[in-house]
Specification:
The structure holds two protein chains of two kinds. By secondary structure, chain A is mainly β. Chain A is built from no helices and eleven strands. Chain B is mainly β. Chain B has strands spanning about 5, 10-15, 20-25, 35-40, 45-50, 55, 60-65, 70-75, 85-90, 95-100, 100-105. Classes of the chains: A mainly beta, B mainly beta. Chains A and B meet through strand 5 and strand 10 of A and strand 4, strand 5, strand 9 and strand 10 of B.
Chain lengths: ~120, ~110
């Protein structure tokens, strides 16, 4: 059974940093692209970033480009999101999502984690 | 980035009704369009991929159609458990975009 478990969320002050992690199991992690998708409370889904199977292709939403960095460690079956210079508008549930394919250009996201909540407030 | 225009933003229908949601892309995305269902407090669930393919285990009352810029998602006979928010999603050139979502309620 595919499992994706996010961690690392919490309360952080504006301008500070936070690193999210996603532990994957139940599939060959190294074979698939992975994504981060966020959802502010009561709002819609917003794609944040994606990374291909080997990290060779990476994409970011305009809203986070230059502040967030996605990475993966295939040996540890883990996905990461380094979030720097956090803003109030970054507050959301952050979901880790598995891609059906190895690259970034097709999707879909066929499995999702339960999410981790990031709150940005002074 | 390719913008996706999803409509309506909310919809009220009766059990047994046929429900249709549309999603329009600003430019041709071939059939790179997926549909998700999200229930309150839960992660999204994939229903339709590549515009018209039903995900394994998803009831056949759900369907999708379209290609290019115009896409349609249909529930042929609305059931009480279908109450949720539905999103379209497109992948293009290493960037992913979701539609604004359609909140579906029972009349």
């Amino acid at each position: 059974e595919v499992q994706l478990v996010e961690s690392g969320g919490g309360l952080v002050q504006p301008g500070r940093s936070l690193r999210l992690s996603c532990a994957a199991s139940g599939f060959t992690f190294a074979d698939y692209a992975m994504h981060w998708v966020r959802q502010a409370p009561g709002k819609g889904l917003e794609w944040v970033s994606g990374i291909s199977w080997n990290g060779g292709s990476i994409g970011y939403a305009v809203s986070v480009k230059g502040r967030f960095t996605i990475s993966r460690n295939n040996a540890k079956n883990s996905l990461y999101l380094q979030m720097n210079n956090l803003r109030a508008e970054d507050a959301a549930f952050y979901y880790c999502a598995k891609d059906r394919y190895f690259d970034l250009n097709r999707g879909p996201n066929d499995h999702w984690g339960r999410g981790t909540l990031v709150t940005v407030s002074s | 980035d390719i913008q996706m225009t999803q409509s309506p933003s909310s919809l009220s229908a009766s059990v047994g009704d046929r429900v249709t949601i549309t999603c329009q892309a600003r430019q041709d995305i071939n059939n790179n369009l997926n549909w998700y269902q999200q229930k309150p407090g839960k992660a999204p669930k994939l229903l339709i991929y590549d515009a018209s393919n039903l995900e394994t285990g998803v009831p056949s009352r759900f369907s999708g159609s379209g290609s290019g810029t115009d896409f349609t998602f249909t529930i042929s006979s609305l059931q009480p458990e279908d109450i949720a928010t539905y999103y379209c999603q497109q992948f293009d050139n290493f960037v992913v975009t979701f539609g604004q979502g359609t909140r579906l309620e029972i009349k």
